[in-house]
């Protein structure tokens, strides 16, 4: 294996970072040395073999036999094969030893550089000085995300023009009815909707919320409703000085790495769009490394009450939020073995022992910062200490 080359240089983000500027290459090579030989670059003379060689894009969920049939013949002929667009190209179900190799790669061999890890830990430490427990939100409300989703958020002609220009980048992006896309739950929630969901679940104004995000579409004005619901709102920019963040600021992948580290350490992780980062976080730190809560919005059902929330009391709204979020609150056994993407649910690498699971549940209640009540057989945070009138005022 030749060390991969990130394709961020040609994406919307225009990030020129190489693999070794994000990840610890020497650790990656040594940790997997018993599994596969890895080199940092092609040997002299081999680069010429890539001239005229078209990159291969294997089908999604490609099985081992698929690789043997599609890739191996060309590899034997050309000696060098370049695989492009590689995320989620491997089948979820593989032989046990191959699954274990996946886990060694995903959760042990791939780690950030010392520089990124150090800065990430500084952010975590600063969050911990503000609150013993904190919630991390992967907002995913950047312009490119909204453009790709095909969704409309009420910004009038200005929004249609701005996002319309960006949508031209994706030639295969189908023209869809934005209202129906949103009704079907395929749009990221707005920052305000995420805030209302969390308040409906019982997270109070006192909660410290770390927002992992790139450039938010609409800027501070878009974030204002979320900040009104959660005044203790933090980002990597608010937790650091410009000088501290300068080595990372021009590189979207390194900034995302910092967000990943903070989300990884959070007590509860909230994802607004179930993309690559959210899935690997759910798989790694919330399941493989030991259970921690991941909250996924049930966007399809929540949309119904968001559009009608002015016609109900806050208690009615809160009750419906809790009801609709049943099964989306990150319970240890929420997803059965083999369900979902392997990145998100690596069950074949996790030992399942009844005693260990019972101890784990006890530990959760000891460490979880909010009280529990059984609503639909799913542990939810209670509304202990919330100012009900403030919710009514916000709704009005």
From TrEMBL:
Molecular functions per Gene Ontology: glycosyltransferase activity
Top-level taxonomic group: Eukaryota
Record's signal peptide: none
Protein species of origin: Brassica napus
Pfam family for this entry, one: O-FucT
CDD domains given in the database record: O-FucT_plant (cd11299)
Family: Belongs to the glycosyltransferase GT106 family.
GO biological process: fucose metabolic process
InterPro entries found in the cross-reference section: FucosylTrfase_pln, GDP-Fuc_O-FucTrfase
Alphabetic keyword roster: Carbohydrate metabolism, Fucose metabolism, Glycosyltransferase, Transferase
Identification of the protein by name: O-fucosyltransferase family protein
Keyword Glycosyltransferase: yes
């Amino acid at each position: 294996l030749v060390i991969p080359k990130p394709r961020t240089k040609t994406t919307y983000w225009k990030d020129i970072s190489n693999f070794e500027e994000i990840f610890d290459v020497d650790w990656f090579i040594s940790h997997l040395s018993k599994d596969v030989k890895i080199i940092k670059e092609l040997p002299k003379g081999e680069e010429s073999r890539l001239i005229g060689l078209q990159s291969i894009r294997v089908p999604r969920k490609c099985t081992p036999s698929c690789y043997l049939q599609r890739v191996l013949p060309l590899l034997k002929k050309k000696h060098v094969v370049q695989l492009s667009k590689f995320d989620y190209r491997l089948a979820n179900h593989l032989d046990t030893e191959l699954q274990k190799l996946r886990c060694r790669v995903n959760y042990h061999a791939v780690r950030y550089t010392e520089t990124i890890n150090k800065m990430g830990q500084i952010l975590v430490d600063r969050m911990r000085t503000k609150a013993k427990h904190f919630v991390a939100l992967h907002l995913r409300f950047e312009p490119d995300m909204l453009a790709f989703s095909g969704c409309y958020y009420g910004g009038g002609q200005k929004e249609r023009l701005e996002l319309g220009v960006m949508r031209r980048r994706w030639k295969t992006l189908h023209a869809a009815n934005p209202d129906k896309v949103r009704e079907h739950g395929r749009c990221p929630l707005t920052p305000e909707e995420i805030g209302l969901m969390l308040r409906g679940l019982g997270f109070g104004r006192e909660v410290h919320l770390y927002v992992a995000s790139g450039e938010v579409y609409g800027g501070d004005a878009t974030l204002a409703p979320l900040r009104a619901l959660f005044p203790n709102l933090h980002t990597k920019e608010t937790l650091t000085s410009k000088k501290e963040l300068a080595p990372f600021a021009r590189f979207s992948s390194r900034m995302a790495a910092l967000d990943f580290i903070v989300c990884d350490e959070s007590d509860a992780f909230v994802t607004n769009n179930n993309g690559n980062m959210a899935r690997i976080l759910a798989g790694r730190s919330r399941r493989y490394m030991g259970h921690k809560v991941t909250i996924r919005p049930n966007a399809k059902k929540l949309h119904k009450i968001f559009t009608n929330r002015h016609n109900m009391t806050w208690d009615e709204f809160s009750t419906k939020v809790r009801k609709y979020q049943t099964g989306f609150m990150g319970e240890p056994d929420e997803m059965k073995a083999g369900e979902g993407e392997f990145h998100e649910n690596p069950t074949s690498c996790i030992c399942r022992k009844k005693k260990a699971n019972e101890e784990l549940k006890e530990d959760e209640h000891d460490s979880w910062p909010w009280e529990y009540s059984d609503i639909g057989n799913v542990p939810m945070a209670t509304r202990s200490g919330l100012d009900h009138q403030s919710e009514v005022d916000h709704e009005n």
